[in-house]
Amino acid sequence: MHRVEHVMGFPVSLRVDDERVPEGVADAVFAWLRETDERFSPFKEGSEVSRLDRGELAADEVSADLAEVLGLCEEYRVATGGAFDVRLPGRGLDPCAVVKGWSVQRAAELLTGAGLTRFCLNAGGDVVVAGGPWRVGVRHPHAADKLCAVLSLTDAAVATSARYERGDHILDGRTGLPATGLDSLTVVAPTLTLADTVATAAFALGAQGAEWAASREGCEVFAVVAGGGVLRTPGFPAAGEGAAA
After folding, report:
1. Which of 19, 45, 111, 180 is most buried (most C-beta within 10 Å)?
2. Residues of the chain whose pLDDT is less than 70?
3. Which residues 6+ apart lie within 8 Å of 123 measured at CB?
4. For residue 106, which of 1, 13, 191 has the smallest C-alpha distance?
5. Long-range CB contacts (within 8 A, 24+) of 229-238
6. Bridge partners (DSSP) listed for residue 221
7. Which residue ranges form the domains of the chain, and what is each CATH number?
8. Contacts of 230 by beta carbon, 8 Å cutoff, 6+ apart
9. Residue 133 near residue 151 (C-beta atoms within 8 A)
10. Pairing mode, strands 126-130 and 119-123
11. Cβ distance 152 to 48 under 8 Å?
12. Residue 244 CB: number of other CB atoms within 10 A?
């Protein structure tokens, strides 16, 4: 089964290789992602995030899901010394850097909860897979038609933060300026919640971000630093045989 929809501002593709796919499971995945967008997008006036930011909700009135997301945001703000911050001065509350990986990981858990054992869920280039090995390519930050790495993943997730798609959209919360020092940073981790949040937080840290990400438990890192140098942790998964994600 293969299905693609545009959700939360990017394409999301689901491929399932199990012989039997429970009826309605793909519908549930995409319904959850659309619900997440409605509830947590800072760009929708009626979202829970927007209502909290305007003071229409007190901190103790938010849903358990939003409380979990905000807890992760605070955890990484502290861990990066403020480089990762979803409450930048002069800007509204924007937890999208956590929401994306968190929500797609939840979607993957819907699939495993339905008994599926071999699938690939790709959300705008951030990927979570079950079974494997799956071959996952990482785009080269300086050439759209080239890959800088090909991974072999089994029951894992991978996320990349870079400036090639959206420009200098990741800001260093300590300065309010675009983060510098890295051209791209890819993290492999057991969950996409971890991989995506660590990748974004590390990118916000700048040049020291690659070493910080590598120090996080469960994370393997591949980084292209400004100027073209490469940093790679010893356990970063090399490509092997498997289906292409």
Report:
1. 111
2. 165-167, 240-245
3. 8, 10, 12, 33, 100, 104, 192
4. 191
5. 230/148, 236/149, 236/151, 236/188, 237/151, 237/152, 237/153, 237/156, 237/188, 238/151, 238/152
6. 187
7. 2-244 (3.10.520.10)
8. 148, 222, 223, 224
9. no
10. antiparallel
11. no
12. 10
Res 241: pLDDT: 40
Beta partners for residue 4, in sequence order? 13
Helix, strand and coil in the chain, % to nearest 5:
35, 30, 40
What does the alpha-carbon distance between residue 90 and residue 98 come to, in Å, rounded to a whole number?
A: 20
Write down the pLDDT at residue 224.
93
The whole-number pLDDT of residue 142 equals: 85
Contacts made by residues 228-234, CB under 8 angstroms, sequence distance 24+: 228/142, 228/183, 230/148
Prior bond of 22 cis (ω within 30°): no
Under 8 Å between Cβ of 222 and 196 = no
Can you give the pLDDT at residue 227? 80
Q: What is the pLDDT of residue 164?
A: 74
* H or E element that contains 187: strand 182-189
For residue 206 the two structure tokens come to: 């700048």
Q: Let me know how long the chain is.
A: 245
Distance from C-alpha of 10 to C-alpha of 126, rounded to nearest angstrom: 11
Residue 122: both structure tokens together: 């790709």
66: number of Cβ within 10 Å: 20
